[in-house]
Amino acid sequence: DVETVKLLKAKEGGENIQISLASRILDRTLRTIHVTSNSLNVNCLKDIAGIRASLDVLSTYLGDDFTDNVRRFKALPKCLEAAKHLCSNSSRSVIQSFLLKQLVRYDPNGIDAVKERCKREEFKWIMPPQSEEQTKSPDTFIIHHQNYHTVREALGKAILTSNVDDLNIVIENLQAQPSVRSCYVLLALFREVTTSFSHPNGEDDGIPTRILGKLSRYIEGIQYLPNELKGLAGNFLTNFENANGQLLQLSSRQSSNDRRLIELLVHFLVVMKCLPHRLLQPLMNLAFNPALMMNAFIPTMPHDDGPEVMRAIENASGMLITYRQPKWYECPNGHRYVVTE
Question: Could you name the domain of life of the organism this protein comes from (predicted)?
Answer without folding.
Answer: Eukaryota
